[in-house]
Amino acid sequence: MADALRDLLDGRWAELRRSSIDLLAKLPAERAPDRAEVFEQLGVLAAGGYSRIGFPVEYGGRADIGGSVVAFEALGFGDLSLMVKAGVQWGLFGGAVQALGTREHHDRYLRAIMSLELPGCFAMTETGHGSDVQRLRTTATYDPETREFVVHTPDDEARKDYIGNAARDGRMAVVFAQLVTGGRSYGVHALLVPIRDESGAPLPGVRIENCGPKAGLNGVDNGRLWFDHVRVPRSALLDRYGAVSEDGRYSSPVEGDGRRFFTMLGTLVRGRISVAGGAGSATKRALTIAIRYGLARRQFTRPGSGEEVVVLDYLAHQRRLLPALATSYALHFAQEELVSALHDVSDDRAQRELESRAAGLKAVSTWHATATIQACREACGGAGYLSENLLADLKADTDVFTTFEGDNTVLLQLVAKGLLTSYRDHVGDLDPWGMARFVADQFVGVVIERTAARAIVDRLVGGSSDALRDRGWQLRQFEDRERHVLEGLARRLRAATEANAFDVFNAAQDHLLHAARTHVDRVVLEAFVAAVDRCGDEATTALLDKVCDLYALSVIEADRAWFLEHGRLTPARSKAVTQAVNELCAELRPHARRLVDAFGVPESRLAAPILG
Amino acid sequence: MADALRDLLDGRWAELRRSSIDLLAKLPAERAPDRAEVFEQLGVLAAGGYSRIGFPVEYGGRADIGGSVVAFEALGFGDLSLMVKAGVQWGLFGGAVQALGTREHHDRYLRAIMSLELPGCFAMTETGHGSDVQRLRTTATYDPETREFVVHTPDDEARKDYIGNAARDGRMAVVFAQLVTGGRSYGVHALLVPIRDESGAPLPGVRIENCGPKAGLNGVDNGRLWFDHVRVPRSALLDRYGAVSEDGRYSSPVEGDGRRFFTMLGTLVRGRISVAGGAGSATKRALTIAIRYGLARRQFTRPGSGEEVVVLDYLAHQRRLLPALATSYALHFAQEELVSALHDVSDDRAQRELESRAAGLKAVSTWHATATIQACREACGGAGYLSENLLADLKADTDVFTTFEGDNTVLLQLVAKGLLTSYRDHVGDLDPWGMARFVADQFVGVVIERTAARAIVDRLVGGSSDALRDRGWQLRQFEDRERHVLEGLARRLRAATEANAFDVFNAAQDHLLHAARTHVDRVVLEAFVAAVDRCGDEATTALLDKVCDLYALSVIEADRAWFLEHGRLTPARSKAVTQAVNELCAELRPHARRLVDAFGVPESRLAAPILG
Question: Label partner for A524 (CA 20 to 30 A): which of A15, A118, B57, B209?
Fold first, then answer.
């Protein structure tokens, strides 16, 4: 049964998932003490084939996009500095060259990127602009005389900031800059700019600064970059979505500067999906530690028996850990669905739906990681505060996940806007007034689009039981809430005029965030339902059914005020939801160890003294 | 007006509060790089008179108990390792000698403790027992032959763990151990045990180990202690509550081993109150940073104007920070009330009520710190993750506050038990069946006891308006909820039998925690109401009224499911609460800077590059 559970969790990329964990296990278990060692371990990953998974076959890769994310998730069981560093090198830097460059760039760089001969940076964020990257202020101005681009940082607000690989290892950077030619700006484009020579010294015109110590991820060399009229050849422009001819004429297959930029950004969606997966792995590791400790630790005597009580027998302790465990299961299956969608993406609309789902799942997964790892730390008391018990670094290293690769609050707003426009176009390009007009003209009501296991969900939703543990009832609640919240939002936004659109939107910002959240919750529940449905083992199915109940009911419990406010739950039934969550905690308590074991965190990454 | 606000916040110990901050400002602003430097700074505090505040006048102290907590709170604006180290030396170690020892101990040690000549440890927690300290397993066995106690660690589970000052600086430890004489155990008592010689080497029979790196507070030298039949003279026993005669006869002014132990613990309540205050200071510092940054940072363009929007103008950003700011105000005033109660405590019942309130406020304040500092970090994005911007250390250093000096979950259970027994005796001594009998026999319904500004609260509660912003309505909601939750809990517990008492209690654990929370919320609101009432300045009063509204309504909003479930709010009114919170955020936004400035965090502790 434990194996059936593990098999289900390992899913579509089971073999690759396991071999990646094996590769991880070849690295020393201790936290890498410094940046040099992290870089060295990156070399071990490259040598072990890790870096080849996502790149084209013609350059020695395996062209397995989904697999590249799954392998990244495996790294999330180990040192997260190494995981992030791998993400910077092969996901962001290599991914940008691959997605935004053309044949010439691929021929010239991809092999060296895979082998780590060419360590690089992804230099997008600036000190002054992180979320609103469309307004970056670095410029790349074409000079037809010399057939070069001049890359320039106008002031300190426009310096590149928090850039991984910049402070120590990067030789080259994909620099995002406003492209200017013939006196006109065409919006943000990416160029390859060498930043260090062979000896590691900054190249002329390039200034590099270390960001200094951080809350965590100190094995990653984040830095700042300034460019003082740095000249790069015309071929440095990654020109898949926008090219400049020798004489300075601009051309692009995508019309509109904003639309083009969001198309370019969209090709980089894998980064967000990877962060969601990495956060998931770190959360699983923390839960494994806290639950195993909770099963070993005893405190206070059970009257009569004289025996001390196992702390996971306390309802309060179960409440801290078991709903979070159920949510980790739910998010795991949603992540797998998302990775499959990335792997199989077909058309433009599917691409935009993918981007929206990636944004939503990244936000929900990383906030879940922050909250859950915190709960795990507290559940281990003073022992959880000691570095030797691993939770301290897990907390510190994952903290930034909620704001990097897109600030969660901004991402959830993108999700809601995508829903309101049914992914008909890039929402990043619509200002509040544009959104309001779009909604007024085209929004005719929410159509729930099932993303997973359509048939089984359809059948369950159509059921008639109103028992709290009836999956159909739960699914109907999730759908109904999503629809109602979103339609209410659309009504509010329709009221906007050109003059007050910003204020109307701003006043509805909490409503917008709630709409996004309800959508993500529903997508996640459907993914869980689909996974239970494809589980072949009877006993495992029965167990997963309870885990799924706990996920669904704890989501409803957390938002039960909404269900009460909107007449979806009576007061008595609302209290019954809380009672059902308590009962499910008690029912799952005996299976807690099995449930965390199935995550497959290697024992070498659980070497905490509190686990004995 | 800013000064009126500051004056109100500075409160009863205004002068001492300010002079303590001045003393803090004399220390270097950078984080102390290592333990040696923290120890050196501790010496600066001693020389500056900090350590004298709480000790008796006859030893050169100022006998100002409340003032000693206020001074500790001032340290919370600076390096928290220094704050905790000061708490260990003078609060816990010195405090235990003062509270549990008698004349001889005071004469011999207090001056050396104050001057830091004698650095010491408070060795209570063991690896195996943290929350249930009544079951510590270190023994102190009296040997009448030599008139000595033999202090012994039977196994690794009984080693002293996480002990501040143990790994590097401590020369002596107050060791809590089961006192055995004449073949009988009399429960946990405290003894003074020298652990290091003048050269700093461990004394014979004493083994010392460093706890190693921690998530934060790395300037504190936490360590582990083992005692191998270490002999100390009979006078080493801190014998205020339990003495052993030369021939080994035990005597005590307090009957019952449990009751005696909880009486001893009760005298150490200042530690918890100090942690609540220190957590409050750290939270104020984080809020000051995040709100000042939120007022300077701009992101995304306001349509039409072309100007970028100040991020604190976004509702979502206000929602993250302003209710937390209002709660910090509320907790500040509750803390001041609590410190006053500590300073003025009169009889046994007042003492138990104080202990309960300290437990509750410690739990609520430290969880507020963890959540708020996290929100502040996220509100500052990537910049918030860099150590140079101070939030990283604030997060890491405060994290352990939720579990040290009493695990918050355990503390809230003590609060609820205290309420159920009306502080009639030490609840720590009652097992579930004892509690159930007590409740069945003596609990006749909740009587709300006002802790602050009785007259004004009575008058307001008696009012008749039902407007959401009517203070009387808010107070009635808080009282009514507390009473109803507690009475429901009592009903559940009465149903217990001797056989199922543990299970009945365990099944009600979430109810118990909620009861405690509602009580603390009410006490905190009353303290806020009292503070607004004593504010002499009209404009300041008007502003504070809004801050108090935001506190009260955001508490109701967070628990509005309860109000809906129990028919206290209609769905429409519940939605109106959310709307009112949004409106209050908008109304307070222009005053945000003034509100954080009044906290009085010295500019030297706000030297973050993001604040320009």
Answer: A15
HEC string of A443-476 equals: CCCCCCCCCCCHHHHHHHHCCCCCCCCCHHHHHH
A387 CB neighbours in chain B (<8 A) are 212-215
Q: Please give the Cα distance from B224 to B226 (Å, whole number).
A: 7
pTM for this one? 0.96
Residues of A in Cβ contact (< 8 Å) with B387: 212-215
At the topology level of CATH, where does A2-115 sit?
Butyryl-Coa Dehydrogenase, subunit A; domain 1 (1.10.540)
pLDDT in tens, A150-164: 999 999 999 999 999
Residue bearing tokens 């269900």: A563
A408 to B502: CB separation less than 8 angstroms, yes or no: no
Q: How far is CA B39 from the centre of its chain?
A: 23
| pLDDT attached to residue B2 | 60
Do A131 and B299 make contact, defined as CB atoms within 8 angstroms?
yes
Q: Choose the closest CB to B125 out of A314, A382, A502.
A: A382
Work out the widest C-alpha separation in chain B, in whole angstroms.
91
Fold of B120-255: Butyryl-CoA Dehydrogenase, subunit A; domain 2 (2.40.110)
Q: How far apart are CA A234 and CA A141, in angstroms?
A: 10
Q: Fold match between A2-115 and A270-447+455-462+469-611?
A: no
Class of domain A270-447+455-462+469-611: mainly alpha
Please report residues of B whose CB lies closer than 8 A to that of A300: 131-132
- A126: which DSSP letter? B
Asked whether the beta carbons of B79 and B42 are under 8 A apart, the reply is no
What is the CA A485 to chain-centroid distance, rounded?
Answer: 24
Q: What residue segments make up the domains of chain B, in order of their start?
A: 2-115, 120-255, 270-611
Phi-psi region at A47: left, alpha or beta (left = phi > 0; alpha = psi -120 to 50): alpha
Residue of B nearest to A381 (CA): B403
Q: What is the pLDDT of residues A368-391, one digit of tens each?
A: 999 999 999 999 999 999 999 999
Report the residue of B289, B298, B378 to disrupt the A interface, i.e. the one with the largest count of A CBs within 10 Å. B378
